[in-house]
Amino acid sequence: MDAAWAPPLVAARAEALGARVLVRPLRRGSVRSRSALLVRADTSLQLETLGGTTAAWVDRNSLAGYLLAISWLRERGLEPARLFSQQLFLGSFQAALEALLGGEADVTALFAPPEGHDLRQSVEEVAPGRSQDVRVLACTMPALHDAWVVAPHLSLPEALRLERGLLAVRELPEGTALLRDVLRAERLERAPELGHRELFGRGLGDVTLPLRFEASA
């Protein structure tokens, strides 16, 4: 492939291997979001009583849906493998949140807005009308969002043409709806060179994901 809309760590790894991060989304005016550890509102669970509970995560390479949360726990001396009796990897924020709300899990992690916003706003995006059914147990430090990446084999003129097109999306008649409904963003901005490398300094553990670039057929 020539280009991809990549999760944060995939974008960081691709950039380290010679790909170029073109643009990144702004959500609520920020290029970063946090991860919120959520429990059901009708439980009395606290950090000190999480032992033996079940956690529902997105997947092992999800920044907001797993890695930021377990990094936060480890910083407080809590090793997830010992803390939780079971850890479920369900593939999406929606599935993980549904597992929490349905009682299959006791805690989950969801992307959260930057400081100054109601942390439960993200619940409304994934499960409308259910924000009152959850309680925020903790919130992590912010980390970069996903980004649009182009492979190393793409020429600079081609990359710049794609960049211009992405930045001009909001000028289209349907641009606002596309940004809101597909990217959950207000707009896109040009990404700084090697900007995603900051994610490698977050102490996120062993999150190696092989990447290989091949010329398109």
Separation of the first and last Cα atoms? 9 Å
User: So what's the overall shape?
Assistant: globular
Number of helices: 7
CATH class of the largest domain: Alpha Beta
Say what the CATH topology of the largest domain is: D-Maltodextrin-Binding Protein, domain 2
Mean pLDDT across every amino acid position: 87
Structural class: alpha+beta
Proportion of residues in extended strands: 15-25%
SSE sequence, one letter per element: EHEEEHHEHEHEEEHHE
* Alpha-carbon Rg, integer: 18 Å
**Model regions low in confidence, pLDDT < 50 over at least 5 residues:** 205-217
Task: Tell how many strands the DSSP assignment holds.
Answer: 10
CATH architecture assignment of the largest domain? 3-Layer(aba) Sandwich
* Tally of discrete structural domains: 2
> Describe the biggest sheet?
6 strands, mixed
Q: In CATH, what is the homologous superfamily of the largest domain?
A: Periplasmic binding protein-like II
What is the percent of helical residues? 25-40%
What report would you give on this structure?
The protein is α+β, with helices and mostly antiparallel strands and 217 residues long. It has 2 domains: 3-30 and 145-192; 32-143, Periplasmic binding protein-like II (D-Maltodextrin-Binding Protein, domain 2). It has 7 helices and 10 strands. The longest helix is centred in the first third of the chain and has 13 residues, at 63-75. The protein is globular, with a radius of gyration of 18 Å. The termini are close together.
